[in-house]
Design brief:
The protein is of the alpha+beta class. It has three domains: about 90 residues, Pseudouridine synthase, CATH 3.30.2350; about 130 residues, Pseudouridine synthase, CATH 3.30.2350; about 60 residues, Archaeosine Trna-guanine Transglycosylase, Chain: A, domain 4, CATH 2.30.130.10. The protein is built from nine helices and 18 strands. The strands form four sheets. Strands 1, 2, 3, 4, 7, 10, 11, 12 and 13 form a nine-stranded mixed β-sheet that branches. It has a five-stranded mixed β-sheet with strand order 14-16-17-18-15. It has a two-stranded antiparallel ribbon with strand order 5-6. The protein is globular.
Length: about 300
């Protein structure tokens, strides 16, 4: 006997403005409970300390979450000079102190070192796997964690404010895998002091900006009502950077069944334009996404079918 999924089949994205003090998992659980959605996940973890954009995927949108994770992120964060902490943020225990407080000129002088492709060691309290376990689980158990540096891309890093001698505020734009906590720690060390991230807000991720965001509180007031669904962004919002390709109903049905679609006729070549072999596309039919598909050897092959 087929087991029915519990909950309502809701498909799309809700962009939550995460409050401080909540885990990303708890936010997802709250969204699922409030909306009654059968399935939910998020598009990029935020630390409990952090606030800002946490895109929550509902239903078939969960199949597109990886493309949000791969997208560019923007942050605004505050570094507190003079205190190193075990977690590299304000939640950890103080592990070292320094009386050195860098001025604006010194900070500006080191910023170029942290732009572009740089090597970065993740925080000990992170989700990186070490011998099959999460680094944060080992760190909490008191096990010394030795993480290897990894290449990350920092597209933009600017000093935007110095409210006092102890604090500096930055804005950053980065690619996948960059840790703001590591950046704050390493900036302090480069300036001859120690430091940690005292405040952090994500202001954009992939195609989502603060203009899309709603609070958990406001979502809770509308619950299962039509007003909640008006906040829902389409599944394909996460695929804005992927070219769309219109299909006929017959072609769409083939993809839905996991079968390739041949695109070698003259009219097909006009339709696909300059797509190179290996290109990923969002296959569309009737104004709705049908599948993520890859164009290979003249065929369009389904990668992830979207049941909408």
């Amino acid at each position: 006997m087929t087991r029915r999924p519990r909950g309502i089949p809701i498909h799309g994205w809700l962009v939550i403005d995460k409050p401080a003090g909540m885990t990303s998992t708890r936010v997802v659980g709250t969204v699922r409970r409030v909306t009654g959605a059968a399935k939910a996940g998020h598009g990029g973890t935020l630390d409990p300390l952090a606030t800002g954009l946490l895109p929550v995927a509902l239903g078939e949108a969960t199949k597109t979450a990886a493309y949000v994770l791969d997208g560019t992120k923007r942050y605004r964060f505050t570094v507190r000079w003079g205190e190193a902490r075990s977690t590299d943020d304000a939640e950890g225990a103080v592990t070292a102190t320094s009386g050195v407080r860098p001025d604006g000129a010194a900070i500006q002088a080191v910023l170029p070192r942290f732009r572009g492709v740089i090597q970065q060691v993740p925080p000990a309290f992170s989700a990186v796997h070490v011998a099959g376990e999460r680094a944060y689980d080992l760190a909490r158990a008191g096990v010394a964690v030795d993480l290897a540096p990894r290449a990350v891309t920092i597209a933009r890093l600017e000093l935007v404010d110095q409210p006092d001698a102890d604090h500096a505020v930055f804005e950053m734009e980065s690619g996948k895998g960059a840790y703001v906590r590591s950046l704050g720690r390493d900036l302090a060390l480069a300036l001859g002091t120690v430091g940690h991230v005292a405040a952090l807000r994500r202001t954009a991720i992939g195609p989502f900006t603060e203009a899309h965001a709603i609070s958990l509180e406001s979502l809770g007031t509308v619950g299962h009502s039509p007003a909640a669904l008006r906040q829902l962004l389409p599944v394909e919002t996460a695929l804005d950077d992927i070219p769309a390709l219109a299909l006929t109903d017959t072609e769409a049905n083939r993809l839905r069944c996991g079968q390739p679609v041949g695109l070698l006729r003259r009219q097909d070549l006009q339709r696909i334009g300059h797509l190179e072999s290996g290109s990923l596309v969002c296959a569309m039919a009737g104004g709705k996404p049908v599948a993520l598909a890859r164009f290979e050897g003249g065929d369009l092959r389904p990668v992830r079918v979207l049941n909408l």
